[in-house]
Amino acid sequence: MFDGYDSCSEDTSSSSSSDESEEEVAPLPSSLPIIKNNGQVYTYPDGKSGMATCEMCGMVGVRDAFYSKTKRFCSVSCSRSYSSNSKKASILARLQVAGKPPTKKAKVLQKQPLVAKLAAYAQYQATLQNQAKTKAAAVPVEGFSWGNYINSNSFTAAPVTCFKHAPMGTCWGDIAEGVRVEVPNTDSNLPTKVFWIAGIVKLAGYNALLRYEGFENDSSLDFWCNICGSDIHPVGWCATSGKPLVPPRTIQHKYTNWKTFLVKRLTGAKTLPPDFSQKVSESMQYPFKTSMRVEVVDKTHLCRTRVAVVESVIGGRLRLVYEESEDKTDDFWCHMYSPLIHHIGWSRSIGHRFKRSDITKKQDGHFDAPSHLFMKVKEVDAAGEWFKEGMKLEAIDPLNLSAICVATIRKVLADGYLMIGIDGSEAADGSDWFCYHATSPSIFPVGFCEINMIELTPPRGYAKLPFKWFDYLRETDSIAAPVKLFNKEVPNHGFHVGMKLEAVDLMEPRLVCVATVTRIIHRLLRIHFDGWEDEYDQWVDCESPDLYPVGWCQLTGYQLQPPAPQSSRDSQSSSSKQKKKAKSQQYKGHKKMTSLQLKEELLDGEEYSFLQGASDQESNGSASYYIKQEP
């Protein structure tokens, strides 16, 4: 009738445990091991198990926290209640001796052992709680569940270690399947919060599918939770915090000595580091504060920057309000490590166009963000051979991130920055030129798309199709940017095709959506937004701060956009042009209407390297190609 550590091991006529009668498992050793992250065993210094069971309520906790000299009760209340019930039993016995017939309540009390005296009250309270839970469960919960989504489709998620900019991304350690944790026990009739040990069955980003210890292959009570949540603790936390460990009622009958069972199951297993929650908290401290002033790209004119003020910070993502916006509705979202934001004075220092504010002085409370807070770019040597105006290359179109286009270097700035224009779609005043650093993973040498079987978007209105770089360079009297000037580093990012993640829709950067990696080319990922057509896909670098592990939104409190519902999918074909136009208005620049559908032919096990070659007509190395390596 009571879900306790020893509820099945105690004799019904006594409050003491009888370990000698145990036949299913070995006798309890002199000290109860508590596992640590390195698999080593910790024992209490006094040589005792460190655990005690309350003789009043059956709660299990650390022995030193118990009351009375004999450590028999978990609280003063239990000690007094035990004493009170003992007196009642004595009075009832005397009444019977006096010849008075016992009441119905007295008969019940007589039949019950003292160790089970909670039956009347605790069971009643538990029944009320279960009824409330049942009613709550009967109400359908609207919203997206990563756990259900992954389970029902057998999806896999990108590991947290793929996202160095995300919380715990650099200190995730060996958290994997099989790691044990202490979590709240939801399968309990007790009126108070109790805990039990569970093992990780499956990991999906920050989310873990957990199974209570003792369920073996039974998945009926498996549940998903965020491993960085406040209710997830290392094994041993309950003992040191004085919290009760109570086995789920569904399996309480399986063993008569749960302590010995846990000793056998947990010895040598791994758990979270003891400072895990502290590391989570520290990794979610962000240096950017509200009222800081920064320079950020002008979403109405990509070629220039404007001053904006940090309005809010959520999970490292900044809501920036342009300084001249009186009603604070003219805003822009980006991550604090985004290449689109810079310290005040950055534009002037490199020669970038800048829109001066009409505000003559800083508003009260606003202050410039320190320069050391911004992401540093790799230093480059522009003294020797370097990019020049007019050189051709291939670049991701910032106004249509699903396309890699023919592009031209329009201006060379200081510190390795370049102004890039998309051929055939540029505004006459250059207002849609975009600033890329020379080391940017969003620009590529001529020939990148061809060798990697990506369809290159030719200049709008170009008649000679299929597009050939050699012909185009000759027709425009241009040269290709030397391949050696491009970023050739490919980190061991850990992404694989099919992995799930949460990704920013960079055409509407306030939105973080359910997404999938559908293709990988070196360090370049093609991100598909689940439920939407392929034309909304975006090419993103593997180290982009706009990609997050599954569960990031839940952890940080950011709103996650679920996959488009079936009704939206059905209407995509008829309204795709309107939707695409609407999505592309985030920058509100000059939109290129491209109808090319990229081919998604995945290449398995093929690697490519950068090599420089020359065409028959060019011997100066200006024509460049990606050469496929033979296996």
UniProtKB/TrEMBL annotation:
GO terms for biological process: chromatin organization; negative regulation of DNA-templated transcription. The keyword Zinc-finger applies. It is found in: Nucleus. One of its GO terms (cellular component) is nucleus. MBT repeats lie at residues 144-248, 256-352, 354-459, 467-563. Signal peptide: none annotated. It comes from the Eukaryota. Residues 577-593 have a biased composition (Basic residues). Residues 1-31, 561-595, 609-631 are annotated as: Disordered. Residues 1-18, 566-576 have a biased composition (Low complexity). The keyword Zinc-finger applies. InterPro entries: Mbt, PcG_chromatin_remod_factors, Znf_FCS, Znf_FCS_sf. Residues 45-80 form the FCS-type domain. This is MBT domain-containing protein 1 isoform X1. The gene is MBTD1.
